[in-house]
């Protein structure tokens, strides 16, 4: 093959990669490598990469609650009314609270798992023949679990301070309540000479059982929560058949007195139903 033909083939392969992209780009890239022989080939069109990176950055900065405002603006444009935009803006702080509550719950669960790991690691170090203070230093370094109170607890363990008191103070962090049991085991082992490793084993087992029970209960309540959310979304989905039938439900709801009354009453009942359903779920989780 002449150099001109090879260059034309390379250009064609590059053009195909630019136009097709996505799933066909891998085949075009292999053809480019095969025809070019050697050299460096880019992983994708620069414009596409820049656009994808920009979209990822925007999606990372755009929190979930702002989609409420975006949906409200879309409905405001479709219905030629400012009410959906106001409702979407009002939903932003509510959804932010929901997102922050979910983040706090995940943080509590991670801290609780770290406390369980700390108890297991500390029991292993004590069985290996180390003194409780030295064992706590090593276990906290490997497993964590002390959170913001780690400096105070390790200082007490290193210099002979009040380790149970420091553990009790660290247990005030959400999810670290298991440190109260560790403080009790430490106090009994040091003051009365009881076996620290045996107490830590029982504490770790109790904490694991409690965690598994919470996870099982959350899995059982997931169906009820999903059903409540699905029922809450049915009125919104009901607008789609109305639009398909040419009834223009947005105009009726946003520009007529009867529609505004129905919208207000439906919104109040919807909010009350969601609050009641979530209250039942939260009470079940608390029990």
TrEMBL record:
The chain crosses the membrane at residues 66-95, 228-247, 253-277. It comes from the Bacteria. This is Type II secretion system protein GspF domain-containing protein. Keywords: Cell membrane, Coiled coil, Membrane, Transmembrane, Transmembrane helix. It is a multi-pass membrane protein. Its main location: membrane. InterPro entries: T2SS_GspF_dom (IPR018076). It is found in: Cell membrane. Residues 120-239 form the Type II secretion system protein GspF domain. Pfam families: T2SSF. Residues 200-227 form a coiled coil. PANTHER family: CONSERVED TRANSMEMBRANE PROTEIN-RELATED (PTHR35007:SF4), INTEGRAL MEMBRANE PROTEIN-RELATED (PTHR35007). GO terms for cellular component: plasma membrane. It comes from Streptomyces luteolifulvus.
């Amino acid at each position: 093959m002449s150099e001109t033909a090879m260059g034309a083939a390379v250009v064609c392969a590059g053009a195909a990669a630019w136009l097709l992209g996505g799933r066909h780009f891998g085949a075009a890239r292999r053809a480019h490598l095969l025809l070019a022989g050697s050299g460096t080939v880019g992983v994708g069109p620069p414009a596409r990469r820049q656009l994808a990176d920009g979209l990822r950055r925007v999606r990372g900065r755009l929190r979930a609650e702002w989609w409420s405002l975006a949906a409200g603006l879309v409905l405001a444009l479709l219905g030629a009314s400012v009410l959906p935009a106001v409702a979407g803006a009002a939903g932003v702080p509510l959804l932010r609270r929901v997102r922050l509550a979910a983040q706090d719950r995940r943080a509590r669960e991670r801290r609780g798992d770290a406390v369980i790991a700390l108890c297991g690691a500390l029991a292993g170090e004590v069985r290996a023949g180390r003194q409780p203070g030295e064992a706590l230093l090593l276990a906290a370094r490997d497993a964590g679990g002390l959170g913001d109170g780690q400096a105070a607890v390790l200082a007490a363990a290193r210099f002979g301070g009040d380790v149970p008191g420091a553990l009790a103070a660290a247990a005030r962090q959400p999810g670290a309540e298991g440190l109260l049991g560790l403080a009790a085991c430490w106090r009994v082992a040091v003051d009365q000479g009881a076996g620290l490793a045996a107490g830590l084993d029982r504490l770790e087992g109790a904490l694991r059982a409690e965690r598994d029970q919470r996870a099982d209960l959350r899995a059982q309540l997931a169906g009820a929560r999903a059903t409540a959310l699905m029922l809450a979304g049915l009125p919104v989905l009901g607008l789609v058949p109305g639009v398909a039938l040419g009834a223009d439900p947005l105009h009726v709801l946003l520009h007529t007195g009867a529609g505004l009354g129905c919208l207000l009453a439906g919104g109040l009942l919807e909010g009350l139903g969601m609050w009641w359903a979530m209250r039942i779920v939260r009470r079940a989780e608390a029990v």
